[in-house]
Amino acid sequence: MNSVKSLTWLKGLVAFCCMVSIAAAFQPPTAGLQGVLPEVSPYDISLDEFEILPAEAEAWREWSDKTAFLVADLYEDAELDAAGQAELLSQLEARLAFMEKSLTDPAYKVLFDEFTILHGRVKRRVDLARAALDTLTLDPASITNDLRTSALDDLKKAVSTLTSAMNSRGSAGTGWLAYFKTEDLAGLTIDGENVVDTLTTSKNLFDGRDGFDETQKSFAMKTEFNNVATAVNAALEVWNMPPPEEYNPEALRTELGELIAAVERYEEHNLTADATAVKNYANSFGATALDNGELVKAVLQKHYLNHNVIFQASENFMSKMVSDPQTQSRGISEYISNARVSGSSNTNYNTYVNLRPNANIAEFELQLRGTVSTSTVSVVPDARIGSGGNHSFTATQRITFNGDKLSLYSEPSINVNVNNYTTSINTKADGTIFAETGRNRARQAIAARRGQTDSMTRNKITNEVMPKFRSEVPAKINQVNQDLESKLITKLKEQNLYPVARHTSTTENLLTLANTIMNDLKLGGDTPNIAPEIRDGALLHLHESAANNMLDGLGFAGRTMTEAEIRSEIEAKFSELLGKEFKFSEDTAPPATDEAPAEGETAEEGDEVITADTTFIFDDEDPIRVQFEANKILFIVRAGFRREGKDDLETQIITLPIKFSMKDNNTILLEADTPAVKSESGANVAQSNAIKKRILNSFPPRERERQIQLEREGQSTLTLNVEELSALNGWLKVYVK
User: Fold this and answer.
1) Residues 305, 266: contact at Cβ < 8 Å?
2) What is the SS3 assignment for 626?
3) Which of 78, 504, 560, 588 is the most buried (most CB within 10 A)?
4) Distance CA 613, CA 670 (A)
């Protein structure tokens, strides 16, 4: 009896444990990131790395130390469960948000460089850790609802943008809205009964655009329509998504751990093999995750596959680029009704750019603004009237730019402000007692005809400006597009540097062109460093991933080359890319002969390791790399050396830091720091010192002008001044005005 009861109890316990095990498969793992993140903080965000705040920012030491300990706890506190990790990540996210706000506030300028470095390093790790934790703790029941909510939000934003664009065109635009049934799309809800039917109908309508005639098709393929079509397809895909299949949390934890380990290897070494591993995870991760890996892949896209060449130009800078002031003077001699009009006209005009906010494509107005000053005398049978005019006009052409091509967005228009005034009145009654009466009658006649006179002036200015504006702007746009294709796009494609992704946008003051230069085995960029928005000038952000993709194009991997051959091929490559001859300046050349020891000195062992005749044996992978860190450009060369009559020297990893500073208002100073040299077999002090000595002799301090002369075809040369240079967190920033 007791044994039966015991057996029954045991069966019940087993059944309960089985139920708990099954339920646990769909419960947030309490271990969270334990075993997924490294057990020790990565070196570049370790406690020591937070000791970079300048002396004048000593007041921030406690804040920095607290942040450093939070980062350390994320990796090293074995007692934190998933809930504790989530809370710790929230604290770190709050500190990152404070950094982001500070980096746009001039009051924190003393901390800009250090905050930029720390923010970038910590932000990438925190975002990835948050995505991993959220993936591990996903609730299957809420995934579908979240995905549908997000898809509908994106769809409604796209529909709203299209609606605004079409409403601005009157009945012609609203007709397109009715055709594509946008009201039905805007009214969709998560729990609606006919969502799939509505989305399917909309998809069929957008797919049917291929059958339109060329004029209709050209209009219906505008960005606003395409964005709605894309959002419809994405929403339909979400609604048709099958429910999550069997979930294996341990397999997910293993895959997440391997992914994060690959990311950390790339962070530390920046090598192709590590980049390829991360790229593969970005493409394939998700088979074990309930959300198909969307959270994690979004972070990889944001921080490792993002745009890596970004150009920003202020409205004022763009206006300077197109500026071409002109003055025209002409005599006036004509008959208007019964009046003979004579005098002179002076017109001053220039070209400007007016940016228009558009998050989807760069949009701006090319404006021709001018003033017309006239001085005339009108002679009629009974009077002589002196007149003056100060008029202004603005001719406008809206243009879009998608990164490859400029396009006319709408018909050109003109606005004319007329200001005619009378300077003198003489009549036949002058000199008689009826003089004032005669002038009053003339004034009344002038006033009565003022509206007609102003209209005639407005039409005359319009007729003089618009025909030329209508013809010259499209011709100029066409020429610019041809030059872009022949002088830039074709060359980039030939050099395998054509962007795999690009995006253009505009705000009221800033145009942004963002490009991703990346091959199949490499990664892209991170989000750009946070900084105050420029109000003038132009800014180039170049990520080290783009620079390294360009260096790969040199084709040095696995080759054996002399210094002369290296220089020659680099010059040829740059000449081909720039479309004009490129030569290294004299001061960039290494010494032609090696220095003999000074009197009383003896040659050190290994001094002959690198000479002017040394041949480089470049590594098969990553022969030349750059990194942008701590306001230095780090050149990393992996090469062995072939020496006449001696054994080849094994592959050395040589890191040469180049630092830069603004010496004065006209000069940038470039200086080499002591290089680091290491090899796989261990240190040979004499050889390392010889290599360092040779490199430093080849890179004496150099000065470069801060002024850049920008030639403009058919216009005056524009002088740009380099206002700021920085190399932080993987980004090289060049700011010019």
Assistant:
1) no
2) strand
3) 504
4) 26
Name the H helices within 137-248.
140-167, 171-179, 182-186, 195-207, 214-220, 223-239
Q: How far apart are CA 383 and CA 465, in angstroms?
A: 32
Beta carbons of 596 and 537 less than 8 angstroms apart: no
Structure tokens at 572: 């040829």
| pLDDT tens profile 425-462 | 998 888 888 888 888 988 888 888 888 989 999 999 99
Kindly state the tokens that stand for 507: 């705000």
Strand pairing category for 406-408 and 383-401: antiparallel
* Rounded Cα–Cα distance for residues 35 and 368 (Å): 64
Exposure string (b/e) for 367-393, b if CB count within 10 Å is 16 or more? bbbbebebebbbebeebbbebebebbb
* Look-up of token digits 């002179």: 344
Q: What is the DSSP code string of 428-494?
A: TTTTSTTHHHHHHHHHHHHHHTHHHHHHHHHHHHHHHHHHHHHHHHHHHHHHHHHHIIIIIIHHHHH
* CA dist., res. 320 & res. 327, Å (int): 17
Q: For residue 679, give the DSSP letter.
A: E
Cα torsion through 168, 170, 176, 178, rounded to 10: 110
Q: How far apart are CA 247 and CA 100, in angstroms?
A: 37
Label residue 714 left, alpha or beta by phi (over 0 means left) and psi (-120 to 50 means alpha).
Answer: left
Give the three-class secondary structure for 8.
Answer: helix
DSSP state letter for 106: G
Q: Is 74 strand, coil or helix? A: helix
**The two structure tokens encoding residue 647:** 């054994």
Answer whether 513's CB lies under 8 Å from 501's CB.
no
CA of 107: how far to CAs of 54, 102, 103, 112, 532, in Å? Answer: 15, 8, 9, 10, 11
pLDDT in tens, 541-597: 999 999 999 999 889 999 999 888 888 888 888 777 766 777 776 554 444 444 444
CB 346 within 8 A of CB 329: yes
CA atoms within 13 A on the CB side of 673: 15
Which pair of tokens denotes residue 513? 């062109």
| Residue indicated by tokens 């957008």 | 206
CB atoms closer than 10 angstroms to residue 710: 11
pLDDT digits (tens, 9 = 90+) for 503-536: 999 999 999 999 999 987 789 999 999 998 899 9
* Closest CA relative to residue 137, chosen from 222, 19, 30, 235: 30
The structure's pTM equals 0.80
Q: Which amino acid is at 79?
A: E
